[in-house]
Structures are given as C-alpha cells and as structure tokens.
Q: What sequence folds into this?
C-alpha cells in the first residue's frame, strides 16, 4: 500500500504548503520579528536615555507609534499566518464565544490600523508646531498627552460599529468572521471611514510640505547672507531627504490596505484580488513596522545617543571611556547655536 492510499484510508489529506506559501510565511515572520524587536528597542532606548521617564514630546509620540505598531503586529501576525496555512480566513471559535471574539477582533484590528495612521499624523503636527512656532509654548506635555489619548480613543470610537456589524457565518462550508452589510449603517460608516483615512493621508502630505516651505523661506537673524544661505541649503537638503523617506515609506506600505478599504462598499463576502496584491495588503504593514525603528538612527539624535549609552552599558569597562568621549563630543557639537531647521533635523521627524 503506497502513501497516497494510506492517507485516503485514514481520513482527508492535510493541506500541503506550496513553496510560495512557505516564502510568504518566512517573510511575514522575519518582518514581524524585526518589527517587535525594533519597536521594543525604541521604547527601551528613549526611556532609558531620559532616566526612566519620557520628558521629550517628540520621544513620547515616537514611543506611542512604536506601541501601536507592536500591538498591530502581535494582533495580525497570528491571523495572517493562520489564513496562509488554512488557505482561507477561517474562524475557529463557534457559538457565543465565537461571536464575541469575532466582533472584538474586528474592532481591535481596524482600530490598531487607524492608530498607526494617527500616530504618524501626530508626529507631523508636533514637528509643524515646533518649526512654525519655535518661540511659543504650544507644544506642552498636556497637549501631547491629549493627542495620544485622542489617537486611541478616536480609533476605537470610529470602529465601534463593528461590535454590532461583526458576524460569524458559515459560507461555502467554512466558518467566517466578517462585517455584515446593513444598508442603513454600513454605507454611512464606510463613507465616514474613507473620509477620515483620506483626511489623514492628505493632511500628512500638506503638513510636511508646509514644513519644507517654512524651512526654505526662513531667515536667521544675526548671520551674514552667504553663511545663512550655505547653512540653510545644507539643512534643507537633509530635511527634504528625510521627509521624502518618511512619506514614501508610509504611502507605499499603507496605500494598498487603504485602497482595499475604498472598494469595500458592496454586500460581498469576498473581494477578488490578484495574489500579489493580496500579499502586499498583508505584508507591507508588517514591513512598515519592521523598517521604522531601524531608520530612527538616521533621523533622531536622541536615539543615536541612547543606543550609544545602551551599548556602553553592555560592553567592558575599558571601553566606557571611549563611549563617554564620543558622547561628550556629540553633546558639544549639539550645544552650538543652530537655526530652527537644523534643530528640526536633529530632533527627528
């Protein structure tokens, strides 16, 4: 008796993963690993760099973004791998527990998705206030706490209708968790959702364009014209490159997911998508979370110093003097009076 006949006698054969599915699982696992480790490292570095407290407003917003990415990765990684292995997004829990967990999962998944968008927007707003109103006291810890709270509360509030619209149903022999279509509720909800997402995407682009215009048109009192122009050109190039990097990374990783939401109006349980696009919708948000923490050393001076402190604490004592000398040199270079644009580049975006 060969192996095929033996499997047929013992029961239905189990699903065998294809090479493409194995590659998908490996890519998701690698991206999730770097996302979790990198974003956890961001929180450790910023908190340890400030003596156990977060005193810098920009650091607080970056930690908030890292927390949103960590929660999004933890929540969606298991669901994504399960859908790849089983071939479809099946809901294993049944009965009342299945209904409750399905609705909570829908709210949590989409709320974390929106919180990542709003966290990036709050960072842009804080940078805008710092650059355009450098001498004012608009950016305070109270304002930052309110922005962070509104990010999470607004995300949960927007997707709270999923507590009612979520449903578990048997479709084509499978138990599925999905958003059911109720015309009086679903259509207005999706319109509001699209309006919010479009506003976030457009506002993010406009804010950074205003920041660049402000930096290119600023005047630094007390400096000769040629020296001012030379310093401004150098700072403006750095800021432009960093803004372009942030916007390209954000739009390229989240745009496929947003486009999928834009076409999710009809009363359909499934949307026919090309396998490559389906993979990009699932994988690119993980890639965004994996890349963000590792570009912080390029954009953020405090993160570079914090990483230096963290590495010095883990090395031998004979290397501590070298680290202290490097830190003191960095501190002296940062203590020189610089215009707002250069402070902007050193603080991170």
A:
């Amino acid at each position: 008796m060969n192996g095929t006949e033996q499997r047929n006698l013992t029961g239905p054969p189990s699903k065998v993963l294809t090479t493409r599915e194995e590659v998908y699982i490996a890519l998701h696992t690698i991206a999730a690993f770097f996302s979790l480790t990198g974003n956890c490292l961001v929180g450790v570095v910023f908190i340890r760099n400030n003596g156990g407290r977060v005193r810098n407003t920009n650091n607080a917003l970056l930690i908030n973004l890292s927390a949103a990415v960590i929660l999004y990765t933890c929540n969606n990684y298991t669901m994504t791998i399960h859908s790849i292995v089983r071939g479809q997004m099946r809901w294993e829990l049944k009965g009342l527990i299945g209904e409750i967990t399905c609705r909570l999962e829908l709210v949590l998944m989409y709320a974390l998705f929106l919180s990542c968008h709003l966290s990036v927007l709050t960072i842009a707003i804080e940078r805008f206030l710092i650059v355009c109103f450098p001498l004012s006291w608009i950016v305070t810890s109270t304002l930052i706490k309110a922005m962070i709270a509104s990010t999470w509360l607004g995300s949960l509030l927007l997707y709270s209708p999923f507590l009612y619209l979520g449903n578990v149903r048997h479709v084509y022999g499978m138990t599925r968790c999905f958003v059911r279509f109720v015309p009086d509720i679903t259509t207005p909800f999706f319109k509001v959702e699209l309006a919010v997402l479009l506003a976030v995407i457009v506002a993010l682009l406009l804010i950074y364009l205003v920041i660049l215009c402000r930096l290119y048109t600023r005047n630094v009192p007390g400096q000769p014209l040629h020296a001012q122009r030379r310093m401004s050109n150098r700072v403006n190039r750095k800021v432009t490159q960093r803004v372009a990097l942030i916007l390209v990374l954000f739009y390229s990783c989240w745009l496929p997911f947003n486009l999928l939401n834009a076409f999710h109006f009809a009363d359909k349980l499934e949307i026919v998508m090309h396998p490559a696009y389906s993979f990009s919708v699932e994988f690119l948000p993980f890639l965004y979370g994996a890349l963000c923490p590792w570009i912080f050393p390029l954009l953020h001076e405090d993160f570079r110093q914090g990483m230096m402190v963290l590495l010095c604490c883990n090395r031998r004592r004979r290397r501590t003097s070298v680290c202290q000398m490097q830190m003191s040199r960095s501190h002296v270079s940062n203590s020189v009076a610089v215009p707002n644009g250069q402070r902007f580049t050193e603080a991170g975006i």
Observations:
- Strands lie at 166-171, 174-179.
- The two ends are 66 Å apart (CA to CA).
- The longest helix spans residues 95-132.
- The domain at 19-217+231-312 is CATH 1.20.1070.10 (Rhopdopsin 7-helix transmembrane proteins).
